[in-house]
Design goal:
The complex is a heterodimer of chains A (84) and B (264). Chain A has helices at 2-6, 10-27, 31-46, 78-83; strands at 57-63, 66-72. Chain A has 84 residues and is α+β, with helices and mostly antiparallel strands. In chain A, a hairpin with a 2-residue loop joins β1 (57-63) and β2. Chain A starts with a helix and ends with a helix. By secondary structure, chain B is α/β, with parallel strands linked by helices. In chain B, 51% of the residues are buried. In chain B, α5 (100-111) runs parallel beside α6 (127-133) and α9 (188-195) runs parallel beside α12 (252-263). Chain B has one domain (4-263): Rossmann fold, CATH 3.40.50.300. The chains are: A alpha+beta (84), B alpha/beta (264). The interface between A and B is medium-sized, with 16 and 24 residues. Residues 10, 13-19, 41, 46, 123, 173-174, 203, 205-206, 209-210, 213, 227 of chain B line the site of adenosine-5'-triphosphate.
Chain lengths: 84, 264
Amino acid sequence: MLNFLKSKRSATSAKERLQLVLIHDRTDLAPAELDALKDDLLAVISRYVEIETEQVRIRLEGDGRSQRLVADIPLRSKTRRRSG
Amino acid sequence: MGAQVVTITSGKGGVGKTTAVANLAVALAADGARVVCIDADIGLRNLDVVMGLENRIVYDLVDVIEGRCRLRQAMIRDKRLPELYLIPAAQTRDKSAVSPSDMIRLCEELRNDVDWILIDSPAGIERGFKNAIAPADQVLVITNPEVSAVRDADRVIGILEAEGKGTPSLIINRLNQTMVKHGDMLSAEDVLDLLAIKLIGIVPEDDQVIVATNRGVPVALDHKSRAGQAFRDIARRLKGEQVPFMNLEAGSSLWERIIRLGRK
Ligand SMILES: Nc1ncnc2c1ncn2[C@@H]1O[C@H](COP(=O)(O)OP(=O)(O)OP(=O)(O)O)[C@@H](O)[C@H]1O
Ligand SMILES: [Mg+2]
């Protein structure tokens, strides 16, 4: 069992790698560009509210043949901001 | 009414476009339909040898388009099936000798006289591909269960959608069930999951395809071959028949996916 987990089946690698490649091919967005997009997005939002930076999750998700940019951006609560 | 124009394309080379066109043509014609295949791979003519018709060629696609012969003169009649014809590609010219509007005009001329026009696209996404898809009512994308073939198929599907050709149907060719079972080949379900389009057929890897090609007798005429059976099933699905997918031990989840994708 452990052995099985260690050496992942090649078909599984193929599928996982393709999943990522296809999302980037379809959106024409390289991984580095996606990182820049995330930084810009957070910078804009930070102009209005405070963000819990460590908990931010932004990623591209495939849904059939369409992709969506999914962002989960927790905001720092007002009370904590005052007390902090 | 008029013919249905079906183009088979792939992005990546060597995945089985020509083999599929020859076999679907034979399967449809064996069923009594009038079929014309067009080899749109200018400069790399191959459909003639796969169909075993290489010795009968006088005129080709470019001769028709440039007016050196009438359309009928470039239609080579098959040896075995009376209502099957091939319009061969020119061998000594390049893709720029043909334009998408030439292909549309040619198919319009053929449309009233036949039931099916099958077009063998060259690999790639350039001029030859554009020529091949221009007259298509329906496009079939063929791929192998392998990383680069699937990636290229995805690119082609994206281009077809962007060009307003609608979403094509998928043929998965050369599936090796033993390798899938050992986890060393993408399964049909994996490929469907990744490409997310409607499946029209799964063709197993089959040595008989090479044997048949050696002889110039498409494998769909061989009733013992599994690949031949798969191509005949695809031909029936093209005609709108509901044909269950061959048992490739794909599992029930594949079935659910096929049904779900079919509903979209
Ligand atoms: N199901 C199969 N089982 C075994 N061999 C196959 C199968 N399908 C195709 N082949 C073989 O794969 C090779 C490539 O097939 P084919 O020429 O049809 O591909 P193609 O996509 O038309 O290539 P090109 O892009 O060069 O036009 C041929 O040798 C053919 O016999
Ligand atoms: Mg070919």
